[in-house]
Amino acid sequence: MRPERPARGPAPTYSRERIAAAAVAIADKEGIEAVSMRRVATELGTGAMTLYRYVHNKDELHELMIDYVMGEDALPDKTGDWRTDLAACIRDHRTLVLTHTWLPRLMAKGMALGPNTLRGMEYAMSIVDGLGMTTDEMMETFGIVMSWADGFVRSELAQREMLEQSGMTHEELQTAMGAYVEHVLGTGKYPMFARIVSEARFRDADERFEHGITLLLDGIEANLPPRAG
């Protein structure tokens, strides 16, 4: 990502931060598909050609959007316990993606090396630094946990959308499917499904997310190299 234009000559009318903020607001309200140079320019009360003085193309606009929302993360002081700090980092990422549901889609295109993104990377890498992992292992570990968090949130949002489209609550949807479920159970062919119906508590999203974090951290800890001495 290009650095901001040097501060010489007349003060620019717009900053790239202001442009990114306008684009993020559009994406949050209408989806990432609604974001275009022309649409952002309209929101700012100018023409698309004016924005090209600050942003080369749509890909660069997307990079600015990623870096802008990364700046929303306050990055709390670390406790010194890597499990506690990494868990907090994963929770913050979930909150960020729930707020900006389009974010994983843009981040999948590649890392935007803006100042806020780099600040977050430094913070995240420092959490697992000193655990005996190589630099590659540190990057891969953090990538795995964030990819899991992205996938969890996508599933979470898909379930919400399904309920909204159905116009029913989760309980009402279960009731509506009752006759079919009884038919399936009556065949006796699906014992594991029968266990799910009779035994599963169906924990809420927060509980499932916390359980997932514990599983991830346990897996990471189990694969750490032995400490010297």
TrEMBL record:
Gene3D superfamilies the UniProt entry points to: Homeodomain-like, Tetracycline Repressor, domain 2
InterPro entries in the cross-refs: Homeodomain-like_sf (IPR009057), HTH-type_TetR-like_transc_reg (IPR050109), HTH_TetR (IPR001647), Repressor_TetR_C (IPR004111), Tet_transcr_reg_TetR-rel_C_sf (IPR036271)
A single BP term in Gene Ontology = negative regulation of DNA-templated transcription
Question: Which keywords does the record carry?
Answer: DNA-binding, Transcription, Transcription regulation
Taxonomically, the superkingdom here is: Bacteria
The UniProt annotation gives the DNA-binding region as: 36-55
HTH tetR-type domain span: 13-73
Pfam families documented for this protein:
TetR_C_1 (PF02909), TetR_N (PF00440)
Q: Which GO terms describe its molecular function?
A: DNA-binding transcription factor activity; transcription cis-regulatory region binding
Database matches in SUPFAM superfamilies? Homeodomain-like, Tetracyclin repressor-like, C-terminal domain
Q: Give the protein name, as stated in the record.
A: TetR/AcrR family transcriptional regulator
Q: What organism is the protein native to?
A: Amycolatopsis suaedae
Q: What is the lineage of its organism?
A: Bacteria, Bacillati, Actinomycetota, Actinomycetes, Pseudonocardiales
